[in-house]
């Protein structure tokens, strides 16, 4: 905890130093960004801008429709060929740490005078002085809240606003599964209470937009996936797959397949779920991994260049067919699960 506070203090000091000279900061959320990555990026950008920095949130692709109801989306820039920007004083990877998680935008990390990250995933690489990586945190938005809180206390001026409140709650609500996952701690309830007491946020509407709002095509798509579930190892491992043909036929996107992988964990006796999907960019296969805690999903994903958390992780295997990826990973998952023993971990 003390190390986390030290890094937060260091980040705040750097931001305040940059603010005094109108320094430039870029925020790089991970590829295939979600509510947590986007919410933390925009919230920090708004807070740092309010203290005097020039900030930019730079995404890899157009924002998914599932996030279209969030505020301040017009402040997000897309990294397109030929994008010209002056050098940044600080580049922060958000909701990720490794350069490969931001793709082509990694050049901003290497070209900036200072670099760091704000992340809550398990990492396998060495951390720097400005890398705030806290795997025990529920979400990166939880960490963003603490940074903004520290800035407020230091400056004795309000920095939180309603838009930031909505964005932070969006990241926390989605990454805790509406406060139901094992990563839900008293900290996130205290943060939610603070934001809801201070600002008029419709939490019910936020939950509806993320967890209930859907389309007929999406419901049919979900049925296509679940009807193809296959059980392995006596039902301990459940596997499903998604082809591009399935996605195109229903006219849907694949930006929230992780939710389906999580739903599969509800089947009795299931310890691991694997949801495979064909990826166009980069070409290959994406696998969403969910676990009941005995099987370490993060360490398993790291084997394939991915990462995540104990109970939820993912990886993208490049230049491989769907059948090849499924055969290899299912075989390896059975071996790892057989070797796993002991109590469930949280």
- What is the CATH architecture term of the largest domain? Alpha-Beta Complex
CATH superfamily of the largest domain, by name, is inorganic pyrophosphatase (n-terminal core)
Helix count? 12
Distance between the termini: 18 Å
CATH topology of the largest domain: inorganic pyrophosphatase (n-terminal core)
**Broad structural category:** alpha/beta
Integer-rounded radius of gyration: 20 Å
Overall, the morphology is globular
- Beta content: 15-25%
CATH level-1 class of the largest domain = Alpha Beta
**Average pLDDT reading:** 93
Number of domains: 2
Secondary-structure element sequence? HEHEEEHEEHHHHHEEHHEEHEEH
Annotation, overall tally of beta strands: 12
Name the strands of the widest sheet in spatial order: 3-2-1-4-5-6
Uncertain parts: none
Which percent range fits the helix content? 40-55%
Main sheet overview = 6 strands, parallel
Can you tell me about this structure?
This protein has 346 residues and is α/β, with parallel strands linked by helices. The chain folds into two domains: 2-210, inorganic pyrophosphatase (n-terminal core); 217-339, Roll (Diaminopimelate Epimerase, Chain A, domain 1). 42% of the residues lie in helices and 18% in strands. The chain contains twelve helices and twelve strands. The strands form two sheets. Strands 3-2-1-4-5-6 form a six-stranded parallel beta sheet. The protein has a six-stranded mixed beta sheet with strand order 7-8-9-10-12-11, with helices on both faces. α4 (140-155) packs antiparallel against α5, α5 packs antiparallel against α6 (186-198) and α5 (162-175) crosses α7. It is globular and about 60 Å long. The two termini are 18 Å apart.
């Amino acid at each position: 905890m003390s190390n986390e506070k030290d890094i937060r203090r260091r980040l705040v000091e750097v931001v305040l130093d940059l603010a005094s000279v109108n320094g430039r900061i870029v925020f790089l959320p991970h590829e295939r960004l979600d509510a947590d990555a986007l919410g933390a990026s925009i919230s920090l950008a708004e807070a740092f801008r309010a203290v005097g920095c020039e900030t930019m949130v730079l995404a890899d692709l157009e924002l998914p429709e599932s996030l279209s109801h969030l505020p301040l989306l017009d402040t997000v820039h897309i990294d397109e060929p030929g994008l010209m920007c002056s050098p940044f004083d600080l580049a922060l990877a958000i909701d990720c740490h490794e350069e490969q998680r931001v793709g082509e935008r990694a050049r901003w990390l290497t070209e900036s005078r200072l670099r760091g990250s704000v992340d809550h995933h398990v990492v396998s690489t060495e951390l720097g002085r400005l890398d705030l990586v806290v795997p025990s945190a529920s979400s990166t938005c939880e960490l963003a809240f603490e940074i903004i809180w520290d800035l407020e206390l230091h400056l004795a001026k309000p920095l939180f606003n309603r838009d930031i409140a909505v964005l932070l709650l969006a990241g926390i609500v989605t990454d805790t599964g509406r406060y139901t996952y094992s990563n839900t701690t008293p900290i996130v309830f205290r943060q939610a209470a603070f934001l809801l007491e201070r600002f008029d946020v419709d939490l019910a509407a936020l939950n509806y937009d993320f967890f209930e709002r859907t389309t007929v095509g999406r419901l049919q798509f979900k049925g296509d996936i679940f009807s193809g579930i296959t059980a392995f190892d006596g039902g301990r491992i459940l596997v499903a797959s998604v082809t591009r043909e399935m996605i195109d036929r229903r006219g849907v996107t694949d930006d929230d397949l992780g939710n389906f992988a999580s739903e599969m964990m509800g089947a009795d006796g299931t310890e691991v779920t694997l949801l495979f999907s064909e990826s166009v960019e980069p070409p290959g296969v994406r696998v969403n991994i969910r676990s009941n805690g005995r099987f370490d999903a993060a360490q398993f994903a790291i084997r394939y260049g991915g990462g995540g958390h104990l109970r939820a992780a993912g990886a993208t295997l490049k230049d491989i067919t769907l059948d090849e990826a499924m055969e290899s990973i299912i075989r390896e998952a059975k071996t790892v699960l057989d070797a796993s023993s002991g109590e469930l971990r949280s």
